[in-house]
Structure formats: C-alpha cells, structure tokens
Amino acid sequence: MIGQSFGLLRAMKANTAEKWIEDRVNKYGPVSKLTLFGKPTVIIHGQAANKFAFTSDTLSNQQPQSIQTLLGERNLMALSGEDHKRVRGALVAFLKPEVLKQYVGKMDGEMRKHLESYWEGKQKLTVLPVMKSLTYNIICSLLFGMEPGTRREKFLLSFQYMIEGMWSVPVNLPFTRYNRSIRASSTIQTMVRDIIGEKRLALDKGHASPDQDLITSLLSIHGEGKEAMLSESEIVDNVMLVMTAGYDTSSVLITFMVRLMATDPIVYAAVLREQEEIAKCKKLEDLITWEDLNKMKYTWRVALEILRISPPVFGGFRKTLKDIEFGGYLIPKGWQVFWAANMTHMNESIFPEPSKFDPKRFENQSAIPPYCFVAFGGGPRICPGYEFARIEILVAMHYLVTRFTWKLCGKDNKFSRDPMPVPTEGLPIQIKAKKILRNHLMLGRPVPSPAV
C-alpha cells in the first residue's frame, strides 16, 4: 500500500525529489519498479520515455488514486482513446487562441482589480497566496462566470481543502488530509452541478451565449449524435480539473517570476525594457491587446526557462492497458508508469549548462528536440490550457514590472514541493509603486499619484 510513497513525498517536501529520482536511475537503471500511492509502478526517464508516455496507445492516463477520487473518473487526465479525444476537443474549442483573443481585455480588467485590492497602497505582501487569489478570480470570472460574493468565497474554501490531498496516500480515515479533501470535493461537485443547471436554463431561455464561459461552451457542444456531447459528470469533472490546473500552476509561475526579478537584475532590466516599450505607446486606460502579447517574446522566454528549471508539475502517471515492453523490460498490464520532467529538462546533452538560467534557449523552440521540454506535456497530450496560461502570465507581468518595484524580505530563497513548488513563507516582498508618467504629460493630463 505505501511502498516508496512517503520517501518520494519527503523528498518533494525537502526539494530533493529530482535527486531522489536521479539516485534511483543511477542505482537501478533507466527503468525500475517500485510502489507509489498504493500501485505497482515503473519509473522511466529520458526523451524516448517522454515520447512513450505522451503518444503510446498502449498506455492510458492514470493518476494516483487520491487525484482520481478527488477530481472524478471522467476528467481528461483519467480518459484515454476516443473519450480522451472527444473531451479534449471540447476543452480545446474554448481554449484555442481564436476564442481566447476576445478574453484578453477581461483578463486585463481582472488584473487591474487585483492590483487595486492587493498591491496599491501596500508596502509588503506575500506573493504566492496573493497570486493564487488572482488566478482563482480569473478562473471564476472567465471560465465559469461565477461572480464575486458568498458563493465564490465558499467555493474557494472547499477548493483549497480539496487540493491539499491531491498527492497523498489514499487512506480514508477521519481527521486525515485525504478525508478532508474528499469531503471538500463532494461540496465542490454539488456547487458545480448547481452552476451547470443555472447555465443550462439561461441558454434555453436565450439569456446566455455559447462562448460566454467554459461551462456554457461545454453545454453548447453539438455534433453527430449524442456521443459528441459531454455528460454532466464529464462537465463537472473537467471543470474541476481546469480549475485545479489553472489555479496552482499559473500562480506558482508568476510567483517564481517575481522571485527571479528580485534576484537577477539583468533579466529584470530586459523584461522591464520590453514591457515599457509596449506601455509607452498606450494611454493609461488602454487595455492590453492580443497584438501587445505577441510583442512580449522575451518575457515569455523567461517564463519558459523558469518552467524548465522548476516545472510546477513534477511528473505524471500512465497505466498500461496490456503487457508491454519498454527499454528491454516487460511492464505488466495495469501497472502505473511514472515519468519526471526534470530528467530531460536538466540533461546537459539536451540543455548545455542546465543549472544556468538562460532564456536564449527558447529563442528558437523548434531547435529543442521533441519530447525534451515537457512542462506542458507533449504530442496529443499537450496541455490544452497552454495559451490561456500564456495570456495570464504576460498580462500579470506587464502590470507588475511597469507599476511596481520590489525586493525580497526573507533571506531564505529556497522552496519545497507540496506537490507544487512553494517558496519559503510564500515569498514575502517589500513593494513600492512607480510614478506613472507615460502619455499623461503628452496628453496634458495630470500625473496620477504613485498609488494608481
């Protein structure tokens, strides 16, 4: 039941999980067996292993029992074959760039509200929880159409309890983290079903449009026969999946970018220069546009390099559909297959001087061998929310670097995993608002106070 689960979890907590994997590879070779989270498991690593994990039709998605129980059996990470293609296609229909272009302005508006609530007029703040508030509010507004209020606050409390047990030994005993997560998941499912009922009624009455948010988009899918549509259970499970993925991964990446800007003046200067070039051509009230985002090339390369060195998602699981052979070994049917991103991200034959922070690596992404940079997955299983995350990160960084300066408060610049990377104490910083002069003198307008 337990096997090496606690060993891996302890290593993640101590931020030594990469070494834990590396030590196993050095000791047992590129393919080895163990028990993780109650299942017999095989660890594989390397470019061929990544390709095998993301493309093989002999593997199905398989998450630890804890994740599958909390997010439901019909979420995208638990599906394979035609069901995976159908549900993925439904999500991609909403998350593709052509659709997301119309939401850039809304995301800009959410960022401005965030700055007003958490940054303006403040001298200190803790970055990670603040960024989680940002990503949560963006998801509620843009993906689910959930307005601020009591429901959103109740949803957040249950959601935070649920994600605490995502990577835990699945022993459902009272007063355990896993038990509390299960109860929170049940509460969230009930709330999501209520929202779905409201959205369905609004669509039937013509009070909502199919592209209003993710839920209305999923409810509006029509195709050849009922098999093209998503069941209510599939909508519930995948709403919970998208929320979980968007809440943690984006907030962690923004936090790590803030941390980097405070410790690397060269990277900070280059990001600031790029963002100021965009800002100086705009009035203060102008929203970020899709064209502006496409000019933020260096800022996004910085984000990708952070993802290479400290990927929010440490690794993933698959399940064998039949007895299969990999690397000269037979993996029995029903076993878990575990891959870890850092095994190619930190491989010096793929990324020279892998410990060095160098955004230039991503100037020509086509030069990076396939299935070596897997922060967003790969092949048919690449993350459908990639473009959504890019917009979110770039809009946030534009306003942060052009309107504020900051420095770290703590001396400890380390982080642990639980299972996402968590900086020490959540990364407390001292902040100072900049005087915004652009366009106001030229337009004959009064210069706003630094708190604006």
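the 2nd protein, sequnce then structure:
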Amino acid sequence: MKIEQIYTGCLAHAAYYLESNGEAAVFDPLREVQPYINRAKLDDAKIKYIFETHFHADFVSGHLDLKNKTGADIVFGPTAKPNYEAIVAEDGQVFEVGAYKVKVIHTPGHTMESTTYLLIDENGEEHGIITGDTLFIGDVGRPDLAQKVVAELTQEKLASHLYDSLRNKIMPLSDDLIVYPNHGAGSACGKNMSKETTDTLGNQKKTNYALRADMTKEEFIEEVLAGLTEPPGYFPQNVMMNIKGYESFDKVMIKSQNPLSPRAFEVAANETEAIVLDVRRHEDFIKGHIPRSIFIGMDGNFAPWVGALIVDVTQPILLVIPRGREEEVVTRLSRVGFDNVVGYLDGGFDAWKNEGMEYDTITSISAHEFAKIYEDNKDNIFDVRREGEYRAEHVNLAKLTPLDYLNNYLSEFPEDETFYLHCAGGYRSVIAASILKSRGIHNLVDVAGGYGAIRKTDVPTTDYVCPSTLK
C-alpha cells in the first residue's frame, strides 16, 4: 500500500499521504498545504479527500486551504459539527481512493468526534490504522482537552469513552495492522509517547500500558488521568479555529512578512501593544536584545512554547529574526494559530544596535563559575524544567519553578538578592529570564549549559524527590 508519513519534528506531528491509481488522500494536514499538493503532482494524482481524525488542539489544520486549492472533500468522523462544508461520515462508512478503501471507525474519547481510519489495500487486505490522537505508540490521547471547549465533557467521561473505543473498536483488529498515529514524543497531546512513530498493533497490545488486556475501566481511567499536567493555554483557541475556520495561510504570509526599520519597529511596538518576540539563538539573545522583548528561539521547540507562553493567538507580535528566515518563522507561528504578526525588524538585531537604539543583556555564568558560588547562594537557585525532570534529578535545594507556569511563581523570586536560573541545556532558562526581565525583574543570572553542565561539576544533587513535597 502506498502510504507515506510526513513528520514535522518541531510539533511532533504526523500527516499522511495515500495514493492509488491517480487519486490521493491527505490525513491531518498542517497549515501550509503546498507540500501536499506538490507531493500529489509527483504522482500525477488528484487529491480526492482530506481526512481529519478530530478537531485538533495543538495545531491549526490545513484542511480548508487544501480544499480550496484542490477541490477535495473534507471528511470528519461522526458527531463532528464544522462550520463549513464537509462530509460528516457515519461509523463504518467506506471511502474509495483509487483501488484502496478507507473505512471510518468512530473512536470517541480523546474528543467525541475522534475517528480512526482503517486502510484497506487493492486486494481487500487490511493494512493499517490512522489513529489520530486515539492511540499513540506507547500511549493514548489525553482525555482532558475537550472539556476546555465543552464543560460537561469531563475528563472522566471522556476517559470512559476512550476505554470503550480501544477495547471494542481497536483491540479486536488484527495484530498485523500498522499503527499510524498523529503524534510522537514531545507532543502535549499525550504524556508517555514513544520516539517511534509507527508500530504494529500487536506489539502495542503487548507494550502499551493503556492496552493491557486485564485492565478494568476504573483502572484505565485512573492510569490515563494520572500525572496529566494543565494543557497549554492556546489549545482551546486552536480547536475553535479548526471548527469555525480561519484566514487563508497565503494571506497570513503576505501580511506578516512586513519589514520595519528600527524606528518604525519601535513606533509599531508602542502603537500596537505588540509583544516583541526574539527568535534568534539564545546565546545571541544573552549578548544583546531589545528591552522587554521575549525570547523563544526558533531552533528549539518553538511553536509549542509560543502557544504555551503567549497563549492568546490574537496577540499582536513583532519579530526579531535572523536574516533570511522570516518566511520560516511566520509559517511556524501560523501552524499554531498566531496570525497577527505586525512585522519584523528589517536587518535584524544588528540594525537595531547600529541605529544606536537602547538594548539590554542577560548576565550568564558557566557551570564551573556556578559551582564556586553555589554554597553562598544555594537558597536562591531556581530550576525551570518540568516537574518530571526535577523529580528525577536536580540541584540540591533548588526550587522548582517550571517555565510552563512561570507566571504562577513570580512572587517566589527574591526582590533584592541575586538569584540563579537553569534548565536542562540553556534554552528554557533564557526564555524564563526574558519573561522575568520583561516584568521588571533584573536581579537574575543564567547558568549556561543548564543542568547538563552543572551535573559535571561538584555541585551537590538530589536524585529523587517525592511528588508530595512539590507545590
């Protein structure tokens, strides 16, 4: 069967392209759709269907633009209620793509419209399942997202539906089927996903904790909900964009790539109340940046951090970008619904500095320098990693202030004493430093290289802390 996984690492997202006899289908496309159109052209094929497994929360799907550009029909599973023309399929309905068949299997739980698509080849043999966020490799979709949109859909109710879907719809299928999920490790749509992006269903039945044969529904609900952190704040907004529709990606690209001189950039910042978002390397941001700008480097886990920290997708944004990467940054922002880019600094930060404009820096020290001052400053060390990382191993006496929820911890940072920030490798601590400085907190020092560098020194560490001792 001719099926291709198109994986985008920064979002840990997998779309799928299916082709047979000059007809093609795309499953869960990203916002920029030209790559799918180009792929079909290579096969001299016409895209016939755009299958959506559910209304996505972590990205804005490209289904509407792809339909407008190709004439393909959008297909959702049962109970979906999109605000635009689409086929809402029935459970068990079959769609033909060339000699292949795609069978709809309604699998509510992650969301109520969540649907798995069974792929059947030209010989009538079942080949695989495109599972969306119902079943991942090593995990299942978190059942707490839909309640952010529909309050009565509690996470317990959704987990109960997910248990039934897995037991009654997925697990009875053949062990030989290949599982094609929508996400891999790094996505916030699950909690324990594997780095592998495909597997056989039979192996998942053996190794995936949520598919344990003797698991009761009560045990499933408890285990699936255990350890879930608060989902990123932008998720409900992306869901609504996917339900209601959105502005064309092409229009977003045109209006957003607006070069501004340093003086015009400053005026725009004052007039629009835009956030100045600096996406350069964190080492460059440390050396110099526009005062009160927020750093989220594009070479890290860029778009999810923007969504988690800026949250409001309608927020006006001004960009400081390395030259030549403007289109890439705007594209990656649009993937998570941030379409209100006012413009970017023409010539980058060098132009700002050469114009004689005011700029700021971050004090940063090496891990070896940190080791020398640790004993005298051990009460003022802040770890901005996630709780799981902190629990596994951390600097002795360091306080946990996760970057994801930094605003909840602002009162804990000392007002009159120098304090020290670190993460795992240096990226997140600079994000945290930029946020704190934008709020007027400047008495901070970044530890370059983060915990990875610190643990190579003689700074004392703690290997494990009981969750009950954490806030």
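The first strand starts at residue 3 and ends at 8. Residues 247-351 form a domain with the Oxidized Rhodanese; domain 1 fold (CATH 3.40.250.10).
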